[in-house]
Structure formats: structure tokens, C-alpha cells
Amino acid sequence: MSEPPPLTFGRYEALFHIASGGMAEVFAARLRGPAGFQKLVAVKRLLPDLTDEHFVTMFLDEARLAANITSPHVVQTLELGRADDDGALYIVMELVVGVTLYDLCVSIFDSTMGKTPVPYVAEMIAQAARGLDDAHHATTPTGQPLHVVHRDVSPQNILVGLDGRVRVTDFGIARAVSRSTETQVGKLKGKVAYLSPEQSRSQPLDPRSDVFALGIVTWEALTGRSLFNTGDALETVRRVRTMRIPNPRELRADIPEPLARVVMWALERDLDRRCPSAARYAQALREAVPDRPGPKEIGELVRERGGASLQAIQARMSRIDQAAPMRRPKTGSRVVPEAAPKLDSRLFPLSRDNIPRPSDRPAADRRNVPTAVLTGPAPAADPAPPAASASLRVAVGIGVAAWIGAAALLWWTFSR
User: Fold this and answer.
1) Phi, psi (rounded to 5 degrees) for 26
2) Which has more confidence, 413 or 371?
3) Res. 351 pLDDT band, cuts 50 70 90
4) pLDDT grade, residue 335 (50/70/90)?
5) pTM of this prediction?
6) 3-state SS string over the chain?
């Protein structure tokens, strides 16, 4: 019986499988050229069995939109293609070797280090904010503004590379005037724990919605606790809309007061009082923490805290020169990694003691706090790090975080 042909995407040959999700799968791939030239990329392929026009249109929209965003802090889209043999759509993107911000924070909080270093968080989030601002100001090739809103900002969609550079990824559900697919009335797109209040009500969005989501990410990266997430979508949305947002210094006293003020500025529910742009948020973060690490220091942190999974991927990539291309699987099937990591659905611990006990707050502050929070025990002034139970996952390339363990696109329906 003859061996299956190599798995290729146009000019690119697949080297190894990275991850799969509900809508797509991601591969490390290689472009060969004369005199030993080769270029490594990430290829995101729409799953062969997803032939519904809606999914195809969404995938095409993502590629067209991402191709117009040029930024050192956004994963670059290089090419859109369709496979000759099965007609599957694929997007060729910049290959990023590193970890998601999620994995990096969980690794640090689970380690003897115990806390994320504040200057590193400020700089990494500032870089992500710069990437979002570049996306917000993206234009068509003719100069027409696209009015992009990411709508799915989360620590899983922020990659921190070994090169010390932070990149925003996954514009699969981003809104732009040029998109063919739009949110249906009464539908929400995005991860509920990172919705802005206006997004939770399916109201019109502008870039300030992404600023609010990035404020949530900053709060959680500093404290090691979920801000709104309860594990229940309806309760989480209720918290997004009404819960008193604790100052991060209430959970971690070593956070500088200027930095805490900037984070709370991003988390203003009143749009007129919220930080007006991602660029302004980045500037404010850097002003609040003047002494920040450079790319070398951030890269060293990723290397030290990336864990065994990162080391395994690095070892695999070190053998790229001798690697044979993957063989094509059975037509219409998705690829399953040889040893898929155990998945951990948590972001940070989801328990009632994640939010400071409000009993010591003025009564006016307690009126809008959910009952579950009011009855929760008070944490220590400086909470202990979570138990060391998280499985580290490596983000190599665009979209990896979004495709590991869950569908890239999550839909929830709520009444206004």
C-alpha cells in the first residue's frame, strides 16, 4: 500500500500539528526555496467538514481583515489560499514561538515565584495595547478606515514570544465595516468573562470596548484572580454589568497606586469616563511604571516560565532542518496530535474568595455586589498563589490559544 502524499498548503508543507479547535486546526509549516532557503510559518486551516457558507464567510472575513492590520504587536497574516485536493481554506500567518499571557501568568502564580513581576505585566499589556490601537486604526489599501473592534480580547489571545515581543492574535470575530458576517440581533460574540458592559448588552461598540477587556486582563494578570468569571455565563454577565470592581491593590498591596489608577480607568463602565483609546492606555501604563523590562528580559521570563511544553516544542523545532513533511490524513478528517496536553478550563481560580469581602466597605459600595460575593470569605491581604495544578500550554503561531480545548467562536444568547 502506497504511503499517503505529504500534507501541503499551496507552496507550504506541513511539518507538525499544533492544535485543533471547533472551527480550525493549526500547523507549523515550511516554505522551501533555492540554496537551502526555508521560511517557517503557521497555517490555520478551516476544518474540512465545515462547508457551511456561514463558516466559510467568517474565515474569509478574518483573513481579509487581518491582512490589513500592520503592527509589530499583531500576528501578521501573509496569505490566504485554498487546498487543491480537498478545497479547504487556509490562512498563512507569522509563526510565533512563545506562550500565551494566560499560560505565562498561571505558570508564575503556580511557581515558587508566586507573583507576576509588576513591571513586566505593565510592559506586556502596554505592547498588547499598542497592537490593539494599530488594529483600531487599520485602513483598506485605499486608505478607508476599517473601524476594527477586536471583541475577543483575552489572555489566551495575547502571545508573548521568546523574542520578548507581545502580539495580539485571533481577529476571527472582530467587527469591521468591511465584514460580510455580523452579529445577529440578540447574540453575543466573545468570551463572556472579558465582555465590556456595552458588549454584554449587544450595544454598538467602539475601541473603548477593547480597552475595557484589556483592563480585565491587566487586573487578572496582576492579582492572579478572575475578575468576573464564575463558571456560569449568566452570572458572569451579571457581574460584568453590575458588580463593584475592586481596586487591584485590595488583593495585592505591592501594586503601585499610579498603576492601580490606570487599571481602574480602563475598567470604568461609563464610556465618557473610561480611558479613551488603547494608545492612551499603553502610554498611561508606561508612565505609571517607568522602570520596565526590555525585550531581552521579557524573553528570558518566557524561557524560564514556559515550562516543559515550551521546551518540547523548541526541541522539535531545532530538528526542523531534518524534519520530513507530515503525511496527509484521511480525506475530510482533522488531525489529532500524538500527545494532546491535559486541558485546564480555568483562567485563574474561580471561587467566592477571589473577590475581596465587601463587608468592610461602605454600604453604598455593597448595594450592587452579587449575593455570592457578599457571602464569600475574605481572602488574606496578600492572597496565596493558586495550587500548582494548571497544565501549561504552548502558543506557537497565530490562533493556537483560541483553538486549544475550545471552539474559537463562542456564542451566547442573552436578553438585553
Assistant:
1) -120, 140
2) 413
3) very low
4) low
5) 0.78
6) CCCCCECEECCEEEEEEEEECCCEEEEEEEEECHHHCEEEEEEEEECCCCCCHHHHHHHHHHHHHHCCCCCCCECCEEEEEECCCCCCEEEEEECCEEEEHHHHHHHHHCCCCCCCCHHHHHHHHHHHHHHHHHHHCCECCCCCECCCECCCCCHHHEEEECCCCEEECCCCCCECCCCCCCCCCCEEECCHHHCCHHHHCCCCCCHHHHHHHHHHHHHHHHHCCCCCCCCCHHHHHHHHHHCCCCCHHHCCCCCCHHHHHHHHHHCCCCCCCCCCCHHHHHHHHHHHCCCCCCHHHHHHHHHHHCHHHHHHHHHHHHCHHHCCCCECCCCCCCCCCCCCCCCCCCCCCCCHHHCCCHHHCCHHHHCCCCHHHHCCCCCCCCCCCCCCCCCCCEEECCCHHHHCCCCCCCEEECCC
Most confident of the following: 186-195, 286-295, 352-361: 286-295
- Find the mean pLDDT for residues 112-124: 92
- With b meaning 16 or more CB within 10 Å and e meaning fewer, what string describes 68-94? bbebebbbbbbbbbebeeeebbbbbbb
How many C-beta atoms lie closer than 10 Å to residue 23's C-beta?
20
In CATH terms, the superfamily for domain 97-300+348-413 is Transferase(Phosphotransferase) domain 1 (1.10.510.10)
Catalytic residues: 152
Hey, where are the domains in the chain? 8-96+307-322, 97-300+348-413
Question: Please, are residues 2 and 314 in contact by the beta-carbon 8 Å criterion?
Answer: no
Bridge partners (DSSP) listed for residue 12: 9, 31
How do beta strands 12-20 and 24-32 pair? antiparallel
For domain 8-96+307-322, which CATH number applies: 3.30.200.20, 3.40.50.450, 3.40.50.720, 3.20.20.70?
3.30.200.20
Cα–Cα distance list, 83 to 43, 252, 349 (Å): 12, 51, 42
Amino acid at 148: V
> What is the average pLDDT value for the chain, to the nearest integer?
78
In this predicted structure, the answer to whether residue 284 has a pLDDT above a threshold of 90 is yes
**What is the average pLDDT across 349-373?**
36
Q: Tell me what pLDDT residue 404 has.
A: 36
Q: Is the pLDDT of residue 66 over 80?
A: yes
d(CA 116, CA 214): 17
